[in-house]
């Protein structure tokens, strides 16, 4: 089995998750940023990871998925500043699944990731009331993904490749 872990990460959280997954799996494997990828031929399974931005998958990830994952086995993963049990989350995760709808989604991992302080300031001054109120919850995400979340990411990656 040959696996590609493909990810984008603006402030490093999704990258941490991607690397934990990469370290955990025992099969033939590569890890690349989405921007480096020109072909996904020859892989049996793609892990595709990205942050939630503005209530759905980051735009670059959406574009990547539209171009590359049609008909492929895909394990999605995402990080978001809202807590995992936030009632806001289900429609955002649904938007991720929708962006990957042309693939065979074999699993989906998500966890909280720290909202970086500069983004928090930027969102606080946003005209968008939802963005603004979301930024106010930012401090609760500090330090994420923590060791427990990275351990969950590792377990997910092992399960997908066993
Ligand atoms: C422009 C922008 C919009 C964001 N929108 C959301 C959002 O709608 N919901 C959310 O939970 N987090 C949102 N976040 C926070 C990120 O999803 C979160 O911090 C994530 O872990 C960042 O991952 P990264 O470090 O891999 O870029 C947003 C971040 C940015 C920069």
Q: Oligomer, anyone?
A: single chain
Number of distinct helices: 6
Could you state the order of secondary-structure elements as H and E? EHEEHEHEHHH
Largest sheet: 5 strands, parallel
Query: Biggest sheet, strands in spatial order?
Result: 2-1-3-4-5
* Class by SSE composition: alpha/beta
In CATH, the architecture is 3-Layer(aba) Sandwich
Beta-strand content estimate: 15-25%
Q: What ranges have pLDDT less than 50 throughout 5 or more consecutive residues?
A: none
Fourth CATH level, the homologous superfamily = Flavodoxin domain
Question: Could you name the CATH topology?
Answer: Rossmann fold
How many runs of DSSP E, i.e. beta strands? 5
Q: Give the N-to-C terminal Cα separation.
A: 10 Å
What gyration radius follows from the Cα positions, in whole Å?
15 Å
Gross geometry: globular
The tally of domains stands at 1
Bound molecules: flavin mononucleotide
């Amino acid at each position: 089995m040959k696996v590609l872990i493909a990810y984008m990460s603006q402030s490093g959280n999704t990258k941490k998750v991607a690397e934990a997954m990469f370290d955990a799996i025992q099969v033939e494997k590569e890890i690349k940023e989405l921007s480096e990828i020109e072909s996904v031929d020859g892989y049996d399974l793609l892990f595709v990871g990205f942050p939630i931005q503005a209530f759905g998958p980051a735009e670059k990830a959406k574009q990547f998925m539209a171009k590359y994952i049609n008909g492929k086995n895909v394990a999605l993963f995402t990080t978001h500043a809202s807590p995992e049990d936030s009632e806001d989350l289900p429609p955002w995760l649904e938007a991720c699944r929708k962006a990957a709808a042309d693939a065979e989604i074999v699993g989906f991992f998500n966890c909280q990731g720290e909202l970086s302080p500069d983004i928090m300031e930027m969102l606080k001054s946003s005209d968008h009331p939802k963005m603004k109120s979301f930024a106010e919850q930012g401090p609760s995400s500090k330090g994420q993904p923590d060791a427990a979340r990275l351990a969950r990411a590792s377990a997910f990656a092992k399960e997908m490749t066993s």
